Amino acid sequence: MAAIGSHCSFRSEKIPLSAPSSSFSGVSIRFPRLPVASSPRFPVIRRSISCQASSATSLSSSVSGEAKSEMKDFLHIDDFDKATIMKILDRAAEVKALLKSGDRTFLPFKGKTMAMIFAKPSMRTRVSFETGFSLLGGHAIYLGPDDIQMGKREETRDVARVLSCYNDIIMARVFGHQDILDLAKYSTVPVINGLTDYNHPCQIMADALTIIEHIGHLEGTKVVYVGDGNNIVHSWLLLASVIPFHFVCACPKGFEPDKETVKKAQEAGSSKIEITNDPKEAVRGADVVYSDVWASMGQKEEAAYRRQVFQGFQVDETLMKLAGPKAYFMHCLPAERGVEVTDGVIEAPNSIVFPQAGNRMHAQNAIMLHLLGF
Fold first, then answer.
1. Rg of the Cα trace of the chain?
2. Is the pLDDT of residue 339 over 80?
3. DSSP string, 79-136
4. Distance CA 142, CA 147 (A)
5. What does the DSSP 8-state code read for residue 154?
6. Closest to 51 in 3D by CA, of 138, 190, 161
């Protein structure tokens, strides 16, 4: 039975204005031109606020027949089509340029609030979301592990309904993937997946933006991930099912990514997908070599064992030489220097780790603008 509840919802009607076009990788996108003067020009927004009964299941992002470009939530990259993903990346680049110029007149989130649920602590996720939402005029509210205890102290479906009455958007960084699915199912406002044990879509959007900035395009590049077949790999695979590029995951036997996700990416037919146990062969000809910690949050008791199993999978200077002089190094951070990557590789001129981290905010700003209708 569909869950019915009384929820506060915000509806926006956008009056379209003429707009210029912009594009990445051959995809032409149109969106409102951002202001560079003191008199901003934005789409006129008419808002109405209502508290009404609504079906939770009808609001799920998996509703049959819902257009991919009109998804309520940002849970998986492949929930969206190529044009929409590229539109978001285009918008991220434009808003980033505006903020870097020092212009602070673009305040689409003025009067809006965002609830940020953190079952897992994080520096980058919290600061990037909170700062980004603030710079665009909004107010973000941090809810730490002890503030809600979602699923323990209060059921996820109740948390979703309550927060929907107070906030315009919800971001959650949780352990179980079902938690983010349930939040989206019962929330009447957009929900953003800030990370789950299964995937990390905001990180990969930032990564895609970084690759476009440094290489000029994402399509046709070769991205080689070396390490554990974790949630980062799953998000890369889901992106590869939408945008064509060559993705390789080099990991020890027994630490491969989820088989169904690999199959999904391969069957999409957009990209060349390889899963291998040979990092040296994998990195040859790579445009990007990517790494992550070998033991993620919740796996620290396995750290000593994993260090033994992952011998030979450290990204060091020798491995980067095999990749070639034009290969960039990326890491989603935090990094354990001397474990999955050497200090020399992180600090090398071809390391784009810190621009990559900075782009978390800009990619997420664009995601929020898309979901909130700006």
1. 21
2. yes
3. GS-HHHHHHHHHHHHHHHHHHHTT-----TTTT-EEEEEESS--HHHHHHHHHHHHHT
4. 9
5. B
6. 161
Q: How far apart are CA 175 and CA 292, in angstroms?
A: 17
Q: Which residues contact 105 (CB under 8 A, 6 or more apart)?
A: 35, 37, 38, 40
Q: 104 Cβ partners below 8 Å, 6+ apart? A: 135
- Backbone dihedral region of 184: left (phi > 0), alpha (psi from -120 to 50 degrees) or beta? alpha
Check the CA dihedral 321-327-332-334 and report its sign: positive
Give me the sheet containing 288-291, strands edge to edge: 272-276, 246-250, 222-226, 288-291, 328-331
Q: What is the pLDDT of residue 70?
A: 65
Under 8 Å between Cβ of 347 and 369:
no
Question: Binning pLDDT at 50, 70 and 90, where does residue 17 land?
Answer: very low
Token couple for 8: 């506060």
Taking the C-alpha atoms of residue 340 and residue 342, their distance in angstroms, rounded to an integer, is 7
pLDDT band at 297 (very low <50, low <70, confident <90, very high): low
Catalytic annotation present for 332: yes
Cα separation, 290 vs 56, in Å, equals 39
* C-beta separation of 362 from 96 below 8 A: yes
pLDDT for res 34: 47
Q: Inform me whether the pLDDT recorded for 152 exceeds 50.
A: yes
Tens digits of residue pLDDT in 167-200: 999 999 999 999 999 999 999 999 999 999 999 9
Nearest-angstrom CA–CA distance, 250 and 288 = 13
Choice among 202, 249, 251, 332 that is catalytic: 332
Rounded to two decimals, the pTM is 0.82
Quote the CA–CA distance of 229 and 225 in Å, as a whole number: 9
Rounded-to-integer distance, Cα 371 and Cα 134, Å:
17
**What do you get for the CA distance between the two ends of the chain, in Å?**
34
pLDDT exceeds 50 at position 24: no
**Total residue length of the chain:** 374
Residue 39 in this model has a pLDDT that exceeds 70: no
Top pLDDT among 46 and 29 is at: 29
Backbone angles phi, psi at 295, to 5 degrees: -125, 110
